[in-house]
Amino acid sequence: MYPEYELSQYRSAELLRQAEHQRLVRETLRGRRAARREAAERSAETDSHTGRPRRHRFLRTA
Q1: Number of C-beta neighbours around residue 60 at 10 A
Q2: pTM, entire model
Q3: pLDDT, tens digit, 9 for 90 and up, residues 22-44
Q4: Mean pLDDT, rounded, for 13-23
Q5: Which of 21, 41, 50, 51 has the fewest CB atoms in 10 Å of its CB?
Q6: What is the pLDDT of residue 43?
Q7: Whole-Å CA distances, 47 to 15, 31, 34, 37, 53
Q8: Burial readout 26-59 (b: 16 or more C-beta within 10 A, e: otherwise)
Q9: What is the C-alpha to C-alpha distance for residues 22 and 53, in angstroms, rounded to an integer?
Q10: Has residue 51 got a pLDDT over 70?
Q11: How far apart are CA 31 and CA 51, in angstroms?
Q12: What DSSP character marks residue 61?
């Protein structure tokens, strides 16, 4: 029919597919980062509430 119109429609559809894919990738990365941050916070909380004071790894000489 009209080759320019068909080509334009194809390009538009391809751009929409790419945008949707990029959006899904961003959402996935956000979710992973949030899960990592949450896990780090949980491990930091358990480490900070052990009840024993921190000690130096090596003793100082007098």
Answers
A1: 5
A2: 0.58
A3: 999 999 999 999 999 999 888 87
A4: 98
A5: 51
A6: 84
A7: 48, 24, 20, 15, 11
A8: eeeeeeeeeeeeeeeeeeeeeeeeeeeeeeeeee
A9: 47
A10: no
A11: 33
A12: P
